[in-house]
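quick one before i forget lol
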Amino acid sequence: MSADETEVVIAGHICLDIIPELPEGLERIEEAFTPGRLTALGPAAVSTGGAVANTGLALHRLGVPARLVGKVGDDLFGRAILDYLRRRGPRLADDMTVAPGEASSYSIVISAPRIDRLFLHCSGANDTFGADDVPPRALQGARAFHFGYPTAMRRMRSRRGETESLFRAAKNLGLTTSLDTTVPDTASDAGRTDWADFLRRVLPHVDLFLPSIDELLVMLAPTHAGAGQPGGLVSGTMLADLAGRLLEFGAAVAVIKLGDQGVYLRTTADVSRLERMGRAAPGAADAWCGCELLAPAFEVDVAGTTGAGDCAVAGFLTGLLRGHSPAEVLGAAAAAGAASAEQPDATSGVPTWDDLRGRIAAGWKRRDVAIPLPGWTWNDDRTLAVGPNG
């Protein structure tokens, strides 16, 4: 893909996802993992995973020219990843690095309807990925740069300044910068990382930060970790407090993914910060200034939730690049994430941008929001809640 065709560069974590078809009627994942028991499975879906593939391919399906920058080994899984990308776009693997002698990353995804997914994961070549794996030429001509999952990449999280330097370089080239994370593995060195310090150093160079509530709680409020799960304690007040910290750290826009509760947005009240967002900055910065919104999730028959958050990021980026309002962009994020969940893999459920917007306009039903929102105001059709900070 030539530089003048690229709108977004997607860099970071990539892997091969192996998703076995689980037996019908599972109420708990543990039922399939009883020691000594043979559990009969159906065919496995095999696809790429990780932010580079999930967000990148979702953008591709939404009609946004994207360049994918990741790292694989020279092994069977690496060849499968590159082949998968090329079959979806002949140039999509052009900027991937193949590292001789390294293992490619893979995940075994245990995903069943109505049950949150579980991952068995090998980081592989993602652990050696560094800022120098995103050369300046890869960023030339793009409007936005999105990096996914430094939390799951050893060099990016543990070498001080590595992630920070990458985002600083992208900002210096005039790109709008975007960051997504995973839940840090508390049993690894990621669990010993001072994530508040990490974000305090990185977010001044990040325009859009789009974590999930579970990721954010582990990084900034570990005593509340698990509050984002069913029956948890998330409230509008907690969301505002967490997002407020992210804005204080330096982000211009904080987006918190809430799973089946929807997507939350809070933006800085500093117009000049919004105007410094780079080539994909909102044309009407005033309309984005000081917003606090929550878009409920859309109702779908869930086939799998793998990659839904990454696809929500793709929906958000597409809406921003197309110049839509904060409410429309947030709705697109919720819609892309929901469409993803209608298929067991991450991206095949994502439609074209026109089809996605058409489905929303046709009255796609929203889920009820169970999160307490004291002081918030709902619009008439309950497709958007406006917070007291908005």
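fyi The domain at 3-13+49-98+128-386 is CATH 3.40.1190.20 (UDP-N-acetylmuramoyl-L-alanine:D-glutamate ligase).
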